[in-house]
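So, can you check this one?
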Amino acid sequence: MAKRVVELQLSADRVFNMDETAFMPEGTSRRVLALKGSTNVWSKETQANFHMPVVAAVNAAGVAIPPLIILPGKRIYKRDKTAITIKGA
């Protein structure tokens, strides 16, 4: 890699290091629904059955670019996209 950087005369802002990780949303909640004194207690949970890969990259000059978030599905609606927008992305 160092040889190619020298051959191509790349500056530090053109060399990137990337990494990918995935998050598994967990639907845990501490809230329960029950009548006072009842032994029949229910908890409300969100059923999340997907993983969300995130790609991060930083160049050799130390500048980080906004993360790439890969969402499941084929289509993201505009109303949903604005809710998950990251400033600068």
